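Q: I'm writing up a methods section and want to include an example of the input and output format. Could you take the sequence below and give the corresponding predicted structure tokens, formatted cleanly so I can copy it straight into the document?
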Amino acid sequence: MGEQHWSGAGTQADPWVLKTAPLSSEYTMHRDEDSDPPLLVCQVGATRLTYLARAVDDLHAELVRRGDWVLLGASDEKKDPPPESVEAWGRASDNPVGGWYGQRNGYRGRFGMYLPPLLEALGLVELEHNPRNNRVRAITPA
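A: Here is the clean output for your methods example:
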């Protein structure tokens, strides 16, 4: 693992401060345990996105299952993501929630942009930090 690109505890009072995979943009994220179901609240400038909190465990399990590097493929809700990418899986009808992890209509995309850096901060994945076309793979316990 290289340089650390995050800070915070993941609470509303002390959110994770994260950077996108290319290290070009900073955003915050925290768990909202009071929501039903629990959510991850992602704040990108003035834009607030929400994702099901179970996405952390579900995405890690999917990356473990795949066992290799997976393209992030981040894209807006209205654009089709690259096949077999993290983004495609985050909205696929055959994922564990049967569709979108993003919860705010019109802002459900960008799963592949904002979730992998959180998994990196939690020590669950290796994440590339290239200018474009980044990939992620699971870290599995020895």
